[in-house]
Amino acid sequence: MTKIKTYGSYLKDKYGVKVKKIPIAVGGFTCPNIDGTVARGGCTFCLNDSFSPNLAKNRDKIFLNLSSKDNPILDNQINQVIEQINRDKKEFATKIGTQKYLAYFQAFTNTYAPFNTLKKLYDVALEQDDIIGLSIGTRSDSVEDKVYEYLSQLSKTKEIWIEFGIQSIYDKTLERINRGHDAKNVQDAIKKAKSYGLNVCGHLIFGLPGENQEMMLNSAKEAFSWGIDSVKFHPLYVVKNTILANEYNRGEFTPISQEEYIDTLVKAIKIMPKDIIVQRVTAGIDDDSLLAPSWCGLSKNYLMNEIKRALAKEGFIY
Ligand code: SF4
Q1: Do the beta carbons of residue 310 and residue 261 sit within 8 Å?
Q2: What are the structural domains of the chain?
């Protein structure tokens, strides 16, 4: 049996204790694919203010971008980072006995703000007790050189990861989902991040509109060859109040089935170089914002067992 290298085991081997990522959502952050810089509305599957009036009501009214001159909400953002880290740290320590943490800047595009804001927020996160590093979720078209340089500097003493949405290597798919950049843009960004000595995680989505299994596996194979250190696999699911939800309701999009997703995942893992760390093998949503497919709302334990069973049949332990 071949043991798949998981992120948890990679961190445990490196730091000798259980390490967990703490997700952080910073108010005032947005995305160039939402605010009109690249496009408006965002990726078709993305739940954002453009299509969700309730979300818009609850969000800050100030949004930053790369050319924002000042940041009147910086103190607020700093407090949010500190609060989210300390709240989750306590919960994870009690529930699963974790001892060290990575601050995971997850929501929206976490390099899409003026450098001084980013530097301050990354620094504040790293100053919190037991935070050993950062994972920065972002878009390949939104990282300024000075951010790469700063993260590279931090990576000399901290565990620093950058996460890019690859999703597909097919430009026609990226256009169809209104991604706002092409595949070459992600490939170049990964190369650049690697040249700065950063750890890179690539996100792949199976079940994108118009894609068959061969295309999904080609995307995986190609992405593996771009030098990513780690991968997250997701099925595409439809969230209410998104462009994809409209497409689904009009019958223009059929979600991937559980069987096809798991089959594709297993095949992708079979062709994956063994040194690539797997951070995620599925994703779902357990509230009523999920429109389809219903299997993405099943319990995480159930799905993980199904995936583990399918992988075991092919000689893999996850
Ligand atoms: S890049 Fe991310 S935040 Fe931006 S629109 Fe797409 S999914 Fe949403």
Answers
A1: no
A2: 2-317 (3.20.20.70)
Q: Are 140 and 185 in contact (CB under 8 A)?
A: yes
- Dihedral sign, Cα of residue 279, residue 282, residue 285, residue 289: positive
Cα–Cα dist 268/307, whole Å:
13
- Our answer on whether the CB atom of 180 is closer than 6 Å to any ligand 1 atom is no
Peptide bond into 293 cis (omega under 30): yes
The pTM assigned to this predicted structure is 0.96
For 208-248, write each residue's pLDDT tens digit.
999 999 999 999 999 999 999 999 999 999 999 999 999 99
- Which residue, judged by its Cα, is nearest atom 2 of ligand 1? 108
Ligand 1 closest atom vs CA 139? 1
Distance (Å) from CA 97 to ligand 1 centroid: 32
Q: Greatest CA span in the chain, whole angstroms? A: 56
Spatial separation of the C-alpha atoms in residues 287 and 301, rounded to whole Å: 16
